[in-house]
Structure formats: structure tokens, C-alpha cells
Write a structure and sequence with these properties.
This protein has helices at residues 17-24, 47-55, 94-103, 110-123, 127-144, 159-173, 175-178, 182-187, 192-200, 206-223, and strands at 4-9, 30-36, 39-44, 60-61, 64-65, 67-69. With 248 residues, it is an alpha+beta fold. The two termini are 33 Å apart.
Length: 248
């Protein structure tokens, strides 16, 4: 069996194995972590995770700009059959992955975000992920609009009408309150069409990733349980989720 690994150096002396797992799990499922001092080796289950991890070279972890390298250039093979109901982290578009990382308060340079956009353009967005998101769109559309309808389709074609109708649908059906993932909640929101476009089109800008990171962060913040005895400190500010390092 192939060993899908990346090597990480220039780690902070305060970085722990748990910190490494938290950070690199955004790339996909981790088999194991070998951590010694300021270096580590991350063993992934899928080759696509290696490509995502290497893309994060230069990101900041515990205040240190880390270096991420791989011994081999594995095929980016994650476009196989999909049932459209589940999605693995390793199958998400790279722009989606870095948006999630920023939303958690980690620091990534705009060069890394641009790198993610370029990888999505070159490799194409995972067919598994597209099938998953299109299935959600169709399922929610059938519930909210009618059979064979999608929230991003002709029923919501005009921009202004889409915003108003999506808002009305969400309020009436309560989709965002019962949805199981932030993808479902996003599709049911007035921003649904914009969000759908972000995740299904390779053409985007660095600013689009920052905006999606803010949306995810605010959604996580709104969904968090009320703290006992006062307000909890957020891992990142709503206006700039990439500006603060998460607490681990």
C-alpha cells in the first residue's frame, strides 16, 4: 500500500501532535502523525490529501510559518463514482478547504489562496463533490420549491427574486434550522446561488475565498452553544477570520 505522506518543518516548539492533527485534518483523513521537535511527518489515507497539504506550504501554525513538502507527486485521483449523499474532506475543492481553514482562524497567505484557485482550475473540482452538492441542491429544491426543482436553478433565476424567494422559503420551511451541514444551510439562504457558484465553479478570486470564510465563521459562531458565565472568545473576528490563530 502506498504511503501518502508529507513532511512538515519549522514548527513552533509549542506545537503538539493534536495541533498538527487539527490543522492537517482539513486536508483529509490522517492515518498517523510522527512528531519530533520542530518537524513532523503526516501520513494520510488518500493521495489527494497530500496535494492539498503541500499547497498549504507557508501557512502559519502557532505563530510559525511552516514548510510542507512531499517525497512523491501522487496522482490527484479522487473523481471516481459517487452516490451524491456523502462527501469526504479529501474530495472537496481546494478553495473550499482553505476557506474552512481561514474560518477556523488559521493564517494563510493570499498566495496560498491563489494556489488553491489554480489547483482547482488545473485539476477540476472533484466529481464526487459536485455530485454531492448537486444532490443537496435538488433535494432541498424538491422540498422547498417542488418536484424536479433546484434552489440554484430556473425557479430562482433572477437575482433579486432569488434572494427574496430563498429567504421566504427558508423562513417558511425552516431549512437552515434543520439542515445537517453548512452546505445545506448555505443553499437555503438568500446567498444560495452565490454559494453554489463558489463551490461548483473553478473561476473565483482570492476575495471570494475570504468572503466564504467569513460566512462559515459567522455560521459556526451562531450555531455555537451559549457560554456559561459570559461570552466566549472567538477564534477569529467575524470581519477577518484569518487574522487570529485558533486556540488549541
Amino acid at each position: 500500500m502506498s504511503d501518502y505522506t508529507v513532511h512538515v518543518s519549522n514548527l513552533s516548539a509549542t506545537t503538539t501532535e493534536e495541533t498538527l492533527k487539527n490543522f492537517f485534518s482539513f486536508c483529509g483523513s490522517i492515518k498517523s502523525v510522527d512528531h519530533s521537535g520542530t518537524t513532523a511527518t503526516i501520513h494520510f489515507e488518500k493521495p489527494s490529501s497530500v496535494k492539498t497539504a503541500v499547497m498549504l506550504n507557508g501557512g502559519t501554525l502557532d505563530g510559525s510559518a511552516i514548510a510542507v513538502t512531499a517525497d512523491a507527486d501522487h496522482p490527484d485521483a479522487h473523481d471516481g463514482p459517487a452516490d451524491g449523499t456523502t462527501i469526504d474532506q479529501a474530495d472537496k475543492p481546494r478553495a473550499a478547504v482553505v476557506a474552512e481553514i481561514l474560518a477556523k482562524g488559521y493564517k494563510l497567505t493570499d498566495d496560498i489562496l491563489q494556489r488553491a484557485i489554480e489547483v482547482d482550475k488545473e485539476r477540476g473540482i472533484s466529481q464526487k463533490f459536485l455530485a454531492y452538492l448537486q444532490n443537496l441542491d435538488k433535494t432541498l429544491g424538491a422540498k422547498a420549491v417542488g418536484p424536479e426543482q433546484t434552489l440554484s436553478g430556473k425557479a430562482l433565476e433572477a437575482a433579486h427574486a432569488a434572494t427574496q424567494q430563498a429567504k421566504a422559503i427558508d423562513e417558511q420551511k425552516g431549512i437552515s434550522k434543520t439542515a445537517g451541514s453548512y452546505y445545506e444551510r448555505a443553499l437555503a439562504s438568500p446567498l444560495g446561488q452565490k454559494v453554489f457558484a463558489f463551490y461548483t465553479q473553478a473561476s473565483k478570486q482570492v476575495l471570494d475565498i475570504h468572503e466564504e470564510a467569513k460566512r462559515i465563521h459567522l455560521e459556526h459562531k451562531a450555531a455555537a452553544p451559549a457560554p456559561v458565565g459570559g461570552e466566549a472568545a472567538s477564534a477569529a473576528t467575524p470581519a477577518a477570520p484569518a487574522a487570529a490563530e485558533p486556540k488549541v
